[in-house]
Amino acid sequence: MHIAPYDNQNRAIVDAGDPLVPLCYFNIVKLKRGESFTSTVPGYETGIVPATGTVDIAVMGETFAGIGQRRLNVWDGEPEGVYVPTGAPATITCVSDQAEVFVAGARFDEVLKPFAVRAADIDLVQYGSDDTKTHRKIKHILGTKYHGRVGRLLVSELFTVGAGGWSGFPSHKHDTTRLPLETRHDEVYNFRFNPPHGSGLQMLQREDGQPGDAYHIVDGSTIAIDKGYHPCCVLPGYEMYYFTILGGETQRSLVQYFQPSHAYQIETIPGIKDMIAKFK
Fold first, then answer.
1. Which of the two ends of the chain, N or C, has the fewest CB atoms closer than 10 A to its terminal CB?
2. By the 8 A CB rule, do 20 and 10 touch?
């Protein structure tokens, strides 16, 4: 499902218990200097990541100061964030001129401990090539290194490298728990383009061999994926970014099932096996 960009007024874009992707939560919070917002999501653990701007985040008696250093856009430096335990109120206070803040959530029953993720902690993976039109960079914010400290939530930023190209290819899905082949992980994306008037395409093929759906994505588009194979692409001449939220049904580690008709291309894309391993 495609959700076109709109002024959500700091209210959830994908709310708790969403009928399409109940394992995920997503909000965008916009603040000016000195303004605060308290995020509380019962039944969901969350990761708070400034897209731009700097915030202080207070949760469970701790204050994590100076989170986020980007100013111009999501290409302007490395991400930072704070992990917020299930249902815990987290007060976000803007300490820059303005801030745009992503709140990513996954359904989870246990209550763990909060912690900050600084720029030096980001787990970076770059793979693909210009020749295969698959060159991209992934910045894992709440990735595999936090197993045991996070319940079901995976949070990353994905960038196309260069101008134009494909992401999420070879086509894959993760909509059914059937280990060891696949796990069910609901997924939510929020897209940005550089320059902002760029755009792209999100494909969603629900059955192998059958026609699927395609959505025209623009700067600020949100995509919610419940099931099916889901590659996306950006127009030539533009860079694409998407903030990625994965919520697992039974486990945090993601096991992707690659579409049989395209799976052989795993062997043709440089570094893609390292990318796959970083989600496990």
1. C
2. no
* Number of CB atoms found within 10 A of residue 161's CB: 16
Contact assessment for residue 224 and residue 3, using Cβ atoms and an 8 Å cutoff:
yes
Cα–Cα dist 115/241, whole Å: 25
C-alpha angle with apex 31: 115 to 15, nearest 5 degrees?
A: 70
Range of the domain at 45: 2-278
What's the burial of 139, exposed, middle or buried (CB within 10 Å: 0-12/13-18/19+)? buried
The three-state secondary structure class of 121 is helix
**DSSP-assigned letters across all residues of 182-251:** B--EEEEEEEEEESTT-EEEEEEBSSTTS--EEEEEETT-EEEE-SSB--EEE-TT-EEEEEEEEEESS-
Question: Residue 218: beta bridge partners?
Answer: 199
Task: Give the lowest-confidence range in 17-31, 79-93, 110-124, 205-219.
Answer: 205-219
Q: 243-265, pLDDT tens digit by residue?
A: 999 999 999 999 999 888 888 87
Q: Judge contact between 246 and 224, C-beta under 8 A.
A: no
Sign for the CA dihedral angle at 84, 151, 155, 205 comes to negative
Q: Describe the strand order of the beta sheet including 165-167 as a list of residue ranges.
A: 165-167, 232-234, 199-204, 213-218
> What is the total count of domains within the chain?
1
Specify whether the CB–CB gap between 41 and 29 falls below 8 A: no
Quick one: DSSP state of residue 70?
-
**Region of residue 68 (left: phi > 0; alpha: psi -120 to 50; beta: else):** left
Looking at this protein, which amino acid is placed at residue 225? I
